[in-house]
Design a protein that fits this description.
Number of strands: 12
CATH architecture of the largest domain: 2-Layer Sandwich
Distance between the termini: 44 Å
Largest sheet: 5 strands, mixed
CATH topology of the largest domain: Alpha-Beta Plaits
Strand content: 15-25%
């Protein structure tokens, strides 16, 4: 395929050139790169204990059905030879910075989505390459040469199709969807492969008889809004290959949080309070390192039956220091009592940010 498709059926107005880069099994691939004994073996990055969760799985493990966010016990049942590896987030962050440096050689319009993926607008590229396909090819080669890791790339005229393209033939793939191909490509796309359609929404769409992009395109906007609320206009547009969202080079982060699943459930306030404190350390240190000051603190409790609740408090001014954060969080925890079930997970999220250093003295935690 080529980015120089026929203008027929192309979207109105100037055509953008968007690349979505997605590292293949990033965490697991880093571990296999750094430890030759792990190469070719099914590995899971995450907790091996009974209550742990898989953060990432190698392609060898995925062949057995192991997926990220899967309970470790389930992963072990699916793949008895699975090797669990403790995550090394400092290493992943350092490699992510190397990869982003490659991006910056080609464009300033970079929208990171996670450590292992980003959107790039290369409508104008810094090296003067003739097409977005050539840019994507150069980026993949540079990433492999500098890090020893493989990236898949999707190239198209909008973010939705670039994301779909990067996943279409993974791993180790470069796939292009031209303006001429986009609308017809979407029609044949299974609804479960639409970015933004999760398992719950997919099940609902299937109940409504929406199995492909063609089925989605046949539904009027009013029906989609009635069924899916504010997401209705998005589904209506992408079913036609339309997505006007720009690549945002400096996205404002809306929330920052951390959570922990415990090796055993607990119900006592003193025990849960003690387990809460290391989570607060992580959240505060991350916010302080980024000079992000929050006015809203949200506490999440997940119970033994996997039901969960959240409690939030918004303050008139940003949380002043680590001690103030602990006071608010412990107050939210106390407000959740009495508990009817034992707690297996606690999470804390900060939001409603004001960016920049606080005026006057402020207690800072150590950076992560």
């Amino acid at each position: 395929m080529s980015t120089d498709g026929s203008p027929q059926d192309a979207p109105a107005g100037p055509v953008r050139k968007i690349i979505h880069i997605d590292m293949d099994a990033f965490y697991a691939s880093v571990e296999q790169r750094d430890d030759p004994a792990l190469r070719g073996r099914p590995i899971a990055v995450g907790g091996a204990r009974m209550r742990g969760v898989v953060a990432a799985a190698s392609y060898e493990a995925r062949a057995f059905g192991v997926r990220s966010a899967m309970p470790s016990a389930t992963a072990r049942r699916l793949c008895p030879d699975l090797v669990f590896v403790k995550p090394r987030f400092d290493a992943y962050r350092a490699i992510s910075e190397e990869i982003r440096a490659v991006f910056a050689e080609h464009t300033a319009l970079i929208e990171p989505v996670a450590l292992d993926e980003a959107y790039l607008d290369v409508t104008e590229n810094r090296r003067g390459l003739a097409s977005a396909t050539e840019v994507a090819r150069a980026i993949r080669a540079a990433i492999l040469a500098r890090t020893g890791l493989v990236a898949s790339a999707g190239v198209s005229y909008n973010k939705f199709l670039a994301k779909v393209a990067s996943d279409y033939r993974k791993p180790d793939a470069l796939f292009v969807i031209t303006p001429a191909q986009g609308p017809r490509f979407v029609e044949d796309l299974p609804i479960g492969r639409f970015h933004g359609v999760g398992p719950v929404t997919e099940a609902k769409m299937r109940r409504l008889g929406i199995l492909t992009g063609r089925d989605l395109k046949a539904r009027p906007l009013e029906e989609l809004v009635a069924a899916f609320g504010s997401a209705g206009p998005y589904y209506h547009a992408v079913a036609r290959g339309i997505d006007d969202r720009p690549v945002r080079a400096h996205r404002i982060r809306k929330s920052l949080g951390a959570e922990s699943t415990f090796p055993d459930d607990a119900t006592a306030l003193p025990v849960l309070s003690e387990r809460l404190r290391p989570i607060l350390d992580k959240v505060w240190d991350a916010a302080a390192a980024k000079e992000m000051r929050a006015r809203t603190v949200t506490l999440k409790l997940k119970f033994s039956d996997f039901a969960q609740i959240t409690r939030a408090r918004s303050l008139p001014a940003p949380v002043a220091d680590r001690a103030a954060l602990e006071r608010v969080a412990l107050g939210l925890l106390a407000d959740a009592f009495p508990l009817r079930r034992s707690v297996r997970l606690i999470g804390v999220t900060l939001s409603a940010f004001e960016h920049g250093p606080a005026e006057g003295p402020r207690q800072l935690g150590l950076g992560l």
